[in-house]
Specification:
Distance between the termini: 14 Å
Helix content: 10-25%
Number of domains: 2
Low-confidence stretches: 1-5, 7-23, 73-85, 107-113
Number of helices: 3
Order of helices and strands: HEEEEEEEHEEEEEEEH
Number of strands: 14
């Protein structure tokens, strides 16, 4: 009596070989890229700032933090001459090791200084009041996002006349567009009478957006917008300073696994065996008396 062999049992090794060749290899949740502004990576007049060393190996080289053209209607602080830039201040930021500085627009504004001209989210978007950076997985890979954080610090430099003010940062991405209905998270920080300094951290959890930010196979651009105003007044003081620091994007990457030579030989042997078994079965079916 002949034993009937099911096609699935014979072809399973072939299917297994395909799966092993195409199996994604995740790198695990980690810091994907960080921008800490601890060095003048682009020089004193730079409009762009490079990421800190050690980004995830599953990413292409991340893009620099760059400024929207003429976003702040002026030139960089500290003697910089490039239009539309923040200025990097070496003694500022979260750990006082370097950060980005911009001040607010004021009545009688000093010409040629970088200023925040927007006082709400819609105006910030309309006037391109943002900095941005782009990440992309290696060819054939994907990136899954876990979180993003950015530090925001405020300082009131008025001498003898404390005037409280508020600054807000918010994050948008190219995944779902740059609009007020696509804000992924925001953080507002205020100074108060008698307190000239304050700070806070924007934290975005991408798990709250379903699968939208998971297994992305193309580049993603993030824009961090900013707007501010003096509390109770449309025009803040030019001594109101806003600092940005520590942009950190976390998540994981996955690339198509390339088998080791020994593994590839084993998979090839399985494929050849499966093909041989299939040919024997076909021969017996067509020649039952042989």
């Amino acid at each position: 009596m002949r034993i009937r062999r099911r096609p699935f049992a014979i072809m399973a090794p072939v299917a297994l070989a395909g799966v092993l060749f195409a199996l994604p290899a995740p790198s695990g949740a980690a810091t994907l890229v960080e921008y800490n502004f601890d060095t003048d990576s682009g020089g004193p007049n730079a409009n762009t700032f490079s990421p800190a060393a050690g980004w995830d190996s599953g990413l292409k080289t991340p893009g620099d933090v760059a400024f929207a053209p003429d976003a702040f209607n002026g030139v960089g602080q500290g003697g910089a001459t490039s239009p539309g830039s923040y200025g990097r201040i070496s003694s500022s930021g979260k750990d006082a090791t370097g950060g980005l500085l911009v001040r607010l627009k004021a009545t009688g504004d000093i010409p040629g200084s970088p200023v925040i001209v927007s006082t709400d989210a819609a105006t910030a978007i309309a006037t391109s009041s943002y900095v941005e950076f782009t990440v992309a997985p290696e060819n054939g890979g994907t990136v899954s996002l876990a979180g993003f954080s950015a530090w925001l610090g405020l300082y009131d430099g008025n001498s003898g006349a404390n005037r409280p003010f508020t600054a807000t940062i918010f994050l948008c991405s190219s995944v779902d567009g740059f609009g007020t209905s696509n804000i992924l998270g925001s953080k507002a920080v205020s100074t108060s009478t008698g307190s000239s300094k304050n700070n806070g951290t924007l934290d975005v959890d991408f798990s709250g957006f379903g699968d939208k930010f998971q297994e992305i196979g193309e580049s993603v651009t993030f824009r961090l917008y900013i707007f501010a105003s003096q509390n109770g007044s449309t025009y803040p003081s030019s001594a109101h300073h806003v600092y940005l620091d520590q942009f950190v994007l976390t998540g994981s990457t996955a690339t198509t696994a390339v088998p080791e030579p020994a593994s590839a030989a084993f998979i090839l042997a399985l494929t050849m065996l499966a093909t041989g078994l299939w040919q024997v079965r076909r021969h017996r079916r067509n020649n039952p008396l042989s």
